[in-house]
Amino acid sequence: MRRWRNSPPTKPGDARTVTTSLIDRPVSGISGGAVPTRDRPDTLLVVDDHPVVLGGVRSLAGQAGFRIIHEATDIVSGFRAFHRHRPRLVVTDLSFRDSGLSGLSLIRRLKALEPEVRILAFSMHADPIVVARALEGGALGFVLKDAGSDAFLEALAAVRAGRVSLPHALATEVAMLNRTVRPAPLATLSVRELQILSLMSQGKSYEAIADTLSVSYRTIVNASALMRSKLGVNSRAGLIQIAVEQRASGAFAD
User: Fold this and answer.
1) Measured distance CA(161)–CA(141) in Å, rounded
2) pLDDT tens readout for residues 44-78
């Protein structure tokens, strides 16, 4: 990502909080149970072991309107920071110097702890297999670190709103991975299920899909559960991945 702002040096295991409002207001510890992420819409956690990257994300996140930005330099301190502060959105690297692709395990742990958290993964390398695993684990989006600031802000805004965000070329590569594993996956779906999957591929939430189709939220939840069974996936993230793959392969015309 270009034009990173310099950041104070950090050491492995560090975690800190930065406020972007005019008056610094530290985040207090959570007592009496964790505050749900939906009640912290302007909070962000960034997990990366490069200080310059942390500084760049902090600067851009401030531009995007995040008031409180938590930072961590490894997955252990990242998980602890998330457990304490429960931010609405997490931006995490996938690869760490001392622990390889541990960002993938962090994504899974965060989603297990708080299913409503929205996660944007980023990395220097766009390996479609790794990106597919991040999506399967629960990430909603992926962006390359060497993408421009506008591309990062666009991905951040999409994931913040609960929409899927992938570079088009990468989405196509991810779709190709499973073409031989899941031949003609849409053949088992009803017309209504195809409608729902198509809307999911556009990044629409269950609530938005229900409004679009003039049905109840529960109808969409039940249909999604049936589609997961038909398509052999066991999570909403897996269903979203299939939807994105099918759009990238041209199954859903705009």
Assistant:
1) 11
2) 999 998 899 999 999 999 999 999 999 999 889 99
CATH number reported for the structural domain that contains residue 203 in this entry: 1.10.10.10
Total count of domains within the chain: 2
Q: Is-contact 92 79, C-beta < 8 A?
A: no
2 by DSSP, 3-state: which? coil
Domain that holds residue 214: 181-248
Q: What is the pLDDT of residues 103-126, one digit of tens each?
A: 888 998 999 999 889 999 998 877
CA distance 89 to 41: 8
Q: Supply the pTM of this predicted model.
A: 0.62
164 and 140, same structural domain?
yes
Q: Are residues 150 and 228 in the same domain?
A: no
Beta strands, E only, 128-222: 141-144
Reduce the DSSP state of residue 96 to 3 states and report it.
Answer: strand
Strand, helix or coil for residue 118? strand
